[in-house]
Amino acid sequence: MHKVKAVVALEKGNVSVTTINIPNPGPGEALVKVLTCGVCQTDEHYVAGGVGSNFPYLLGHESSGVVEAVGEGVTNVEPGDKVILNWRAVCGECRACKKGQLQYCFNTHNATQKMTLEDGTELEPALGIGSFAEKTLVAAGQCTKIEADLDDDQYAAVGLLGCGVTAGLGAALNTGEVKRGESVAVIGCGGVGTAAIAGAKLGGATTIIAVDIDDAKLERARALGATHTINSKQADAVEGIQKLTGGFGADLVIDAVGIVPTFKQAFEARDLAGRMVLVGVPAPDTIAELPLDQVFGRGGSIKSSWYGDTLPSRDFPMFVQHYQLGNLDLDAFVTERIALEDVEKAFETMKSGKVLRSVVEL
């Protein structure tokens, strides 16, 4: 049994640093010493009760770490391996996996054993990870080995591949299938949207349009690959995108906000036969209405992007390589480095929009 410090949402709106118990890994499980963990909007959703009411929640999921021990039958990692944690440990047996679409796995694995509070109360780990903690217990498949030789301060950057950065990169590269020379517009330049811009650049897009209502976010987007920016408080986003694409609209438009106005903007800002990707997570019961004749007449596709349609075993090593080659500036996503005790304050900082990611270093 391991006793470690962790950030737990004991009940709705109540976050505290407390001691938790972690069992030794059982079959198929890995005990991971956490190195870094990004502060993601999803964790705040857990705190606010937006994910469910199965409190207490062990927060944190965007992490790098070192495997400390493994259970019986684990072959993909061993003690001492540096890893990025993920929440898509594919089962290999569900209907998506059997169709060869492992990135859609409908039955991803988590650790079987439960981590607990000191009084024995079972914890629900955020996205099956729970890594705002000195250590965490996960399914071994949630660990993607880092083969690259990295400096200690680089793990904060690559750990962000565990969720938000990968969601944005994958929205452009996997779901949106961006091609060389295409035009891409991204509506919403928070962490995921800015990563989508970086993904569009990585995929070879030559016109990359960032849309937001915050000039500071737009400047940040330009630094990560945007060739043009539109402040949609000051100009019509759809007209602006069309003007920058010869009057036609973009080949690919990504909605990284997930509200009705941005969804409609993304739909209308596409070229004929263009693609639209929704990667911003809508609030429950959000309803958008579209003219069916335009859905037909515009052609193309409207897709949602789950985790950037990412397969960690395939995509994480590639993204780390691009980081090392200088093609993907993951360091730019690390706005501040904080301690475990600063997580609750970091939630408030995140809401201000002034940071891409606060990263806990343990």
Strand and helix layout:
Layout: E1 2-11, E2 14-22, E3 29-38, H1 41-47, E4 57-58, E5 62-70, E6 82-85, H2 95-98, E7 116-117, E8 124-125, E9 135-139, E10 143-145, H3 155-159, H4 164-175, E11 183-187, H5 191-202, E12 207-212, H6 215-223, E13 228-231, H7 237-243, E14 250-255, H8 260-268, E15 270-278, H9 292-298, E16 301-304, H10 312-325, E17 336-338, H11 343-351, E18 358-361
Parallel strand pairs: 4-8, 11-12, 11-14, 12-13, 14-15, 15-16, 17-18
Antiparallel strand pairs: 1-2, 1-4, 2-7, 3-5, 3-9, 3-18, 5-6, 6-10
Helix pairs in contact: 4-5
Summarize the structure.
By secondary structure, the protein is α/β, with parallel strands linked by helices. It contains eleven helices and 18 strands.
**Beta-sheet strand percentage?**
25-35%
Task: Assign the CATH architecture of the largest domain.
Answer: Alpha-Beta Complex
CATH superfamily grouping of the largest domain: Medium-chain alcohol dehydrogenases, catalytic domain
Number of domains: 2
Quaternary state of the chains: single chain
**Intertermini distance:** 20 Å
Q: In total, how many beta strands?
A: 18
Helix coverage percent of residues? 25-40%
Estimated radius of gyration: 20 Å
- Along the chain, the helix and strand elements come as EEEHEEEHEEEEHHEHEHEHEHEHEHEHE
Helix run count: 11
